[in-house]
Automatic annotation (TrEMBL):
InterPro entries: Cyt_P450_B (IPR002397), Cyt_P450_sf (IPR036396)
Source species taxonomy: Bacteria, Bacillati, Actinomycetota, Actinomycetes, Kitasatosporales
Family per similarity comment: Belongs to the cytochrome P450 family.
Gene3D superfamilies: Cytochrome P450
Species of origin: Streptomyces hazeniae
Protein name per its UniProtKB record: Cytochrome P450
Length: 446
């Protein structure tokens, strides 16, 4: 096991250097296209790897392997704009960081790099502080997360499964006559989005539900020509309207349960947290569905008994969480004070990225190089105080399983409409998901 307290720590805290320009210049050389001469002894120089480049995006496991080889369980990396951070790669280290929120906390305002971050920095939506459950700490986090947990716990999983089946059937009806489909956008993204907004009390099929679904799609996953900022504004307005409506007429839904909870959250807090819940549910569950369909359609181990084979669908869902987990890296945690981790000195205010995919495939927990699907001890839902709140992974499982099983049941002869090697992963080091999943099948009689 790695020494988590790092008795032999190197003195290389990323925040140690007060000069922003210094780090920006010298770490740029590590990426390989600047010839600035680094000051001697700078820890990041020559070794920190850019996470924003395209190089490893198709095969991030190679990046994790080489980082582990070179740096051990905690690697210095460069985020967009060559902003330094630590990537936590080891399974014990990710567990340690997530379980010690008194040392590694969520409020990003303590970051020691803010003076280097431009307002239009691409990662701003993920690290810019918002007064939601995501960035809350201590008693305030327990209050906010407790309300979400209880509101989600009351969801009947059979009803959710039924609702997802109806959603999935309608979507499939839309393309089943054509014999071909692109499942990422027309199916995998749509099922969890619609399930999440219905869970919150938006009626299926209503015009404003459809508008919300469109705006959520644009704000979470903008395409060419979309305006994600305007769409996000409309999402906020629509959720605020939903909260006001449910305040007057509560129903059997997540929003009403949050409003009626004795913790007494304000409407503004509930709007923030509902947006967090919907966004947190949509992207990872969509990629979980699509990565599982890809595995089922490309791996011979599953091909023989795919249709209706509940056991193999369950195995595929679990294997994806180990090997192609949707949230492959999560940003993150910020060090509360100077501390040591995995032989490194982490400075107060340093940013740590949770390397969930790397941790899941840590050779320390898989010494025989066999990453198994037999248990669910992976870190795909993170760990500790801020982990994906307890009922959410179960709900995500219902949504993902229903989406996959319904598709296979409705299209038993579905096959990939491309060579497996032609499938491309989205150019993101954060989410692991395909750009498209083209399939063909026997068209249904119309
Ligand atoms: C119904 C579906 C889901 C819901 C409602 C949901 C909800 C949430 C919420 C509210 C949080 C914030 C927790 C906090 O900061 O206290 C969260 C965090 C998270 N969720 Fe989920 N989630 C869902 C599905 C998933 C899936 C499918 C994955 C990945 C396989 C996932 C992975 C995560 C991760 C990695 C975090 C960050 C935890 C951290 O900061 O350590 N979630 N989720």
């Amino acid at each position: 096991m790695t020494d988590l307290t790092g008795a032999d720590a190197e003195t290389d805290g990323l925040g140690a250097d007060p000069s922003a320009a210094h780090h920006r210049t010298l770490t740029a050389t590590a990426g390989g296209n600047s010839d600035a001469v680094p000051p001697p002894g700078c820890p990041a120089h020559g070794t920190a790897v850019r996470l924003s480049g395209l190089e490893y995006q198709q095969t991030p496991s190679e990046l994790y392997r080489s980082l582990r080889r070179e740096h051990g369980p905690i690697a210095p990396v460069l985020l967009d704009g060559d902003i330094p951070a630590w990537l936590v790669l080891g399974y014990p280290e990710v567990s340690y960081v997530t379980q010690h929120d008194e040392l590694f906390a969520r409020d990003s305002r303590r970051w020691n790099q803010w003076e280097n971050i431009p307002p239009d920095w691409p990662l701003m939506p993920y690290v810019g502080y918002q007064p939601s459950v995501l960035f809350a700490e201590g008693a305030e986090h327990q209050r906010r997360a407790g309300v979400i947990t209880q509101a989600l716990e009351a969801i009947d999983q059979f009803e959710l499964g039924h609702d997802c089946r109806v959603i999935a059937d309608r979507l499939i009806d839309g393309f089943s006559g054509s014999g071909v489909a692109e499942l990422m956008n027309s199916y995998a993204h749509q099922v969890p989005m619609r399930a999440a907004v219905q869970m919150c009390g938006m009626p299926a099929g209503a015009a404003d539900t459809e508008e919300l679904v469109t705006d959520l799609r644009i704000s979470l996953d903008a395409a060419e020509g979309d305006d994600p900022v305007a769409a996000y504004g409309r999402v906020g307005e629509r959720i605020a309207q939903l909260v006001a409506d449910k305040r007057r007429n509560p129903g059997p839904d997540v929003t009403s349960r949050m409003l009626l909870h004795p913790a007494g959250l304000t409407d503004v807090e509930i709007v923030q947290d509902l947006i967090s819940v919907i966004a947190a549910a949509q992207q990872p569950t969509a990629n979980w569905i699509c990565n599982t369909l890809r595995l089922l359609l490309t791996d011979n181990r599953f091909a023989v008994n795919v249709s209706g084979g509940r056991v193999s669908v369950g195995q595929a869902l679990n294997e994806v969480l180990w090997l192609d987990t949707p949230t492959q890296n999560f940003i993150g945690r910020w060090a509360v004070r100077d501390t040591q981790l995995g032989g490194r000195l982490i400075r107060a205010g340093d940013c740590l990225v949770l390397g969930l995919a790397a941790a899941n495939t840590d050779p320390q927990i898989w010494p025989e190089a066999h990453v198994g699907a037999e248990n669910s001890a992976h870190l795909s839902f993170s760990n500790g105080e801020h982990r994906c709140p307890y009922p959410a992974p179960l709900l995500a499982d219902v949504i993902a399983r229903t989406a996959v099983e319904t598709l296979l049941e409705r299209m038993p002869d579905v096959v990939l409409d491309a060579e497996p090697s032609e499938l491309t992963w989205r150019p993101s080091i954060w989410m692991r998901g395909l750009t498209a999943l083209p399939v063909r099948f026997t068209p249904a009689a119309q």
